[in-house]
Specification:
By secondary structure, the chain is mostly helical. It contains 18 helices and no strands. InterPro entries: TPR-like_helical_dom_sf, TPR_rpt, Ycf3.
Amino acid sequence: MKRMRNKILAMLMTSVTVVSVLGGCGRNESKQTTFKQYGINALENGQYKEAIKSLNSALNQANGKVGKNEVEICYYKAEAQYLSGDIKGALKTYTALIDYDNNEKAYYLRGNVYLSQSKTKKAFSDYKKALEENENDYELYIGIYNSLADDGEEKEAKEYLKKALKIDKDKAYDKMQKGRIYYLLEKKDKAISLLNEAIDDGQKDAYFYLGDIYAESDKKSNKEKANNYFKKHMEESDLTSEEYYRFGKSLMKEDKYCYSLSYFLNGLKLEEVPNKQALMKKAISAYEHTSDFKAAKELMKKYVESYPSDEAAKSEYVFLKTR
């Protein structure tokens, strides 16, 4: 069975990503890491075709070997395909990943692509299959909710949240996730209560979601609470630069730029920052949204010196100099 799964993904790497399989050689991990990170950075910067090219090169370094890293690269490739407008290519990549191991993530993401094309029946079918693979995945339920809500399917979206609340678990992590869900269902008091219980039980990420709730309010006292919760989250959690980016990006999507900026800047302070380019780019954007153009210009100067191939950034730097 394992050999068959490897053969399926090897075919994916050949037919979908146009990778030449070189027999008898091992993967070049150093080059693969370089191409992969460059591809991720290009993806985050909106350079989708460049991302696809680099991720193809990363897969090419595998030389026919299939592992966790190759699968992860294929997910980035599919995302870049979708965002570049290559819907057919994205669907093909996700389908190949599903054929490889029936992963719920691939079903969910393919469902999102179908939903974006108004193929609702296929989308719901994929969401169902995703949950059949992992019926206790809170992030999956919340992801489906967000996808459907964004598509105007609010009633159907909330049904998935209600299903998630039926997961029969009561550990700190479960309390945190159910707290998030109650907030999405507009039951704020219940949400705050569960998030506080999760913190008491040692779940540090619950600080972030409490901060997110209070950040919705314009009241000064609530903004202070939000700041305190975000601060505790960053101080008490051992976050990686990727996690700082993920949490900051989540806040930025909600137009909470001041809060997101703190996450991006703290991520940049770490000793190991493999996603430095993406963090810098987001921090610059956050500065601009908060009208701190001086800070944006200073960081952009460092950015263009570090990443001179980003032509769009050079143009933006010229603009910032006039502010």
